[in-house]
Amino acid sequence: MGIVAGLDSSPDFTRIVVCDSDTGAVLRQGYAPHPLEPVEGGGRPTDVDPQAWLLSLGEAAGGGLLEGVQAIGVSAQANALVPLDHQGNTVRPALVGNDKRAQVAAADLVDRLGSREAWAQAVGSVPQSAQPVTKLRWLARTEPENAQRVAALMQAHDWLVWQLLGRPARRTTDRGGASGTGYWSAATGSWRPDLVELALGQQAMLPEVLGPGDAAGTTPEGLIISAGTGETMAAAFGLGVQTGDAVVSLGASGSVMAVHHEALVDPSGAITSLADATGMHLPVVHTLNAVRALRGTAEMLGLDGGPEELSELAVKSTPGAHGLVLLPYLEGEKTPNLPHTAGTLSGLRRESMKPEHLARAAFEGMLCGLADAMDVLRGRGVDIRRVFLLGAAAELHAVQAVAPMLFGTQVVVPQPADYAALGAARQAAWALTGQLPLWQGAAAQVFEPGEELAVGQAVRQQYRAVREQIHPGAFA
Q1: pLDDT bracket for residue 295 (50, 70, 90)
Q2: Within-domain flag for 432
Q3: SS (H, E, C) the chain
C-alpha cells in the first residue's frame, strides 16, 4: 500500500486529503483558509499574492498530516493567471476570479482575431472575461509597464507544483489546466503562442504540457509531484465520471459538462472545449441562471427559508405547475445566447396563481434551462446516459423529484466530499504507480425517471413552446 495526498487550492481555502493509493480510502484530512485581504463592499479579491496560497498550504499540512506520503497531486482554482518576470518572480499579484474588469478586453480579442468562430476554431472557446488570455489583454491595455515585464505565464496549480519542486528550470502544466487558458487547443494538443502575442503584445514562455499520468518531478526528499490540474477536471476525476456521464453544477449560475472522446468546435461559442485529467475531453455549456432563480422566487413569495422552503412548497404542486412557465433568464442568458433579455412568467390564470405553482415553475424553469444546455451537447453527438448533480441545491427534494424526469436519465446526487482534492490524490496515485487507479466511485443517492419520463417530456414541451413564442429561433 502506498500513501498519496491531494491538495485543492480553491479561491478561499486549501483542503488536503491523504489517501490509500490502492483504494482511495481517506486516511487524514487538513484545511486552512487563504489569508486574503478583505475586499471593500464584500466579495472576492481579483488580485491575490500567490504567497497566500503557500501559507494556506503550509497551515493545512501542519501537524504531520503529510507524514508517510509518497506522492502529491495539486488541483487549484481555474483561470488564475500568474505572470512571471525573467527571474521567476511575480510581475504583479495573480489575476484571479471572474474578473469583470476584463469584459471589454474579451470583446477586443474577438475583434482582433476577426470573429467568435475564429476563436472557436483556434482553441475551442470564445474569450470570456475570466480566461487568462483575456486577462493578458486587460494587462496590456491597462498596465503596459507590467505587461512588458512578463516573461513567463503560469496558472495557480502550475505555480504551486513549481514551488513544491523548488522552482526548477522546467515548468509544467497539464492538458486540463492548459485547455482553459484560451491559448491552448484541445483539438491539436498544442499551445497557440500567436494568441499570447495577440493578447499581451509580446511572446512569453509557456509551461510544458504533461500527460495525465506523468509526474512533474520529484522533490529532493523523494516525494513525487504529479502534473496537477484545474479544479473542474480534478473534481470530475474524483467523482469517477466516464463516457456517458454528465455533471450538472447548480450554483447561482449553472453548467453542464460531459466526458467525450474528442474536442468540439462550436462557432456559436455555446460550448467551451476543455480537456480532462485522463486524456479525454470535457465539453462544457454554461447557463447564467440556476439557483439565483430559486432565490429570487423565494424572495418574491416572502419565504425567509430561501430555496429550502421554496422546495417544500413546490412539491405541493404538480408537474407543469398548472400551466405556469418561468423562463429564468434573470441575468440575461448565455444558453441560449440572449445577453440582454429578462425572465418571463407565462401561463397566469386564476387557478394557477398560487404560491406552490410559482415555486414549482421556478424549479422546472431552472432544470429545463439546464436540460436545454444538455441538449446542446447531445446535438453534437455527446452521449449522456447518467447525470451527476452537484451543489447544495442538489439536496433539495424538489430538485431530486423533478430532475430525472426532465433530464430523461438516471440522476446521481453524490454525498458531499472534497472531490477536487480526491481527484488530485487519484492523479498522485497514478504518477506513483504508473497505472490509472480504479478507486471506488462516490457514495451517492440514485434517482430514476421511471414512469414519469413521459410527464417530464410534456413539461419540457410546455417550456419549449413558451421559449419559442417569446424568443423565436433562440436555439437556431
Answers
A1: very high
A2: no
A3: CCEEEEEEECCCEEEEEEEECCCCCEEEEEEEECCCCCCCCCCCCCEECCHHHHHHHHHHCCCCCCCCCCEEEEEECCCCEEEECCCCCECCCEECCCCHHHHHHHHHHHHHHCCHHHHHHHHCCCCCCCCHHHHHHHHHHHCHHHHHHCCEEEEHHHHHHHHHCCCCCCCEEEHHHHHCCCCEECCCCEECHHHHHHHHCCCCECCEEECCCCEEEECCCCCEEECCEEHHHHHHHHHCCCCEEEEEEECCCEEEEECECCCCCCCCCCEEEEECCCCCEEEEEEECCCHHHHHHHHHHCCCCCHHHHHHHHHCCCCCCHHHCEEECCECEECCCCECCCCCEEECCCHHHCCHHHHHHHHHHHHHHHHHHHHHHHHCCCCCEEEEEEECHHHHCHHHHHHHHHHHCCEEEEECCCCHHHHHHHHHHHHHHHCCCCCCCCCCEEEECCHHHHHHHHHHHHHHHHHHHHHCCCCCC
